[in-house]
Amino acid sequence: MTLLPHLAARLFGAPLLIARPKLEVILAVLGPRLGVPSLGAPVASTAPAPPVKREVPGIAVIPIHGTLVRSTLGLDAQSGLTTYTSIAAQLDAALADPQARAILLDVDSPGGESGGVFDLADRILAASSIKPVWAVANDMAFSAAYALASAADRVFLSRTGGVGSIGVIAMHADQSAKDEQDGVRYTTVFAGARKNDLNPHAPLSDDAFAGLTAEVNRVYDLFVATVAQHRGLTPAQVRATEARLFFGQDAIKAGLADALGTREDALAQLTQTLAAGTPAQPRLSLLTEDPSMTATPETEF
After folding, report:
1. Active site residue: 79, 109, 114, 143, which one?
2. Chain Cα centroid distance, residue 115
3. Which residues of 184-201 are buried (b: 16+ CB within 10 A; e: fewer)?
4. What pairs with residue 163 in β-bridges?
């Protein structure tokens, strides 16, 4: 049994919280195998860093590396995927560990699926009211990864690290011209006017385009509200980033990060804070009663 049809369903026609350059890498690798050639120029890509093995006394380090998904279907080892459920399990373990007085999120991810990310961000936010939770962009915390990092009490980024990409993207691949060239004609029989929306073997209809756009905007509203709440910004300030990637002092000026520093710098400062017995940058705000902050889109790429 091949997993390619399922991968195609997760790539196309669903809102993604992923940086565009990484999306091009995925498309370049998987596109020809999915029957959709020339989706992007091949780009070299390295596997995500392995989980940190050296423990710092009193601090649990949780790696958030690679492309983020709700589930991997056994592809994580070969595809550099990390699931929201595995991150949540590590978070729960750190909260339950009496030896772990604080948590550091070691983030190096371009983002990924929308389904599940806001639930996990809520859990990180709740965890920060129990133990200090800091994050470091080491080197990138983009899109879905930034949604998670923004829930931390304090966000560091390395000198070459970046944050942001607060946006949502979805694609539809129209293979009808290729089907015609290959001498294949697909006939779809369906009931319900919108049942055949996003069919890859036909051009995207106006209604289907409008529906997909509405879903992208819905998820974007959730993303904006989440970051605004976590970072103490207004929704207008978050929208004004226009999904840009921010680096260095520009990230701090935009309110998306708090300090420049390596993973080791973040660990050292967090250790000093714990030793001093002072609050580690207390949470700006807790979850609101706004239902839009807790509703989670179930779409996946």
Report:
1. 143
2. 10
3. eeeeeeeeeeeeebbbbb
4. 141, 246
Confirm whether 285 is a catalytic residue.
no
Q: At what angle do helices 117-127 and 206-231 cross, to 10 degrees?
A: 10
Q: Which residues contact 277 (CB under 8 A, 6 or more apart)?
A: none
Query: Quick one: CA dihedral 78, 84, 88, 94, positive or negative?
Result: positive
SS3 label, residue 164: strand
Contact 38, 24 (CB under 8 A): no
Residues 6+ positions from 49 with CB-CB distance below 8 Å: 63, 65, 108
Per-residue pLDDT of 19-51, as tens digits, reads 655 555 455 544 544 454 443 333 333 344 344
CA distances from 232 to 164, 181, 265, 300 (A): 15, 54, 24, 28
> In this predicted model, which residue has the larger pLDDT, 24 or 101?
101
Per-residue pLDDT of 236-272, as tens digits, reads 999 999 999 999 999 999 999 999 999 999 999 999 9
DSSP letters for 80-133:
TEEEHHHHHHHHHHHHH-TT--EEEEEEEE-EEESTTHHHHHHHHHHHTTTS-E
Residue 259, CB-side half-sphere exposure with 13 Å CA sphere? 13
Sign of the torsion formed by the C-alpha atoms of 149, 153, 155 and 156:
negative
Residues 224/238, Cβ–Cβ less than 8 Å: yes
Q: What is the DSSP letter of 134?
A: E
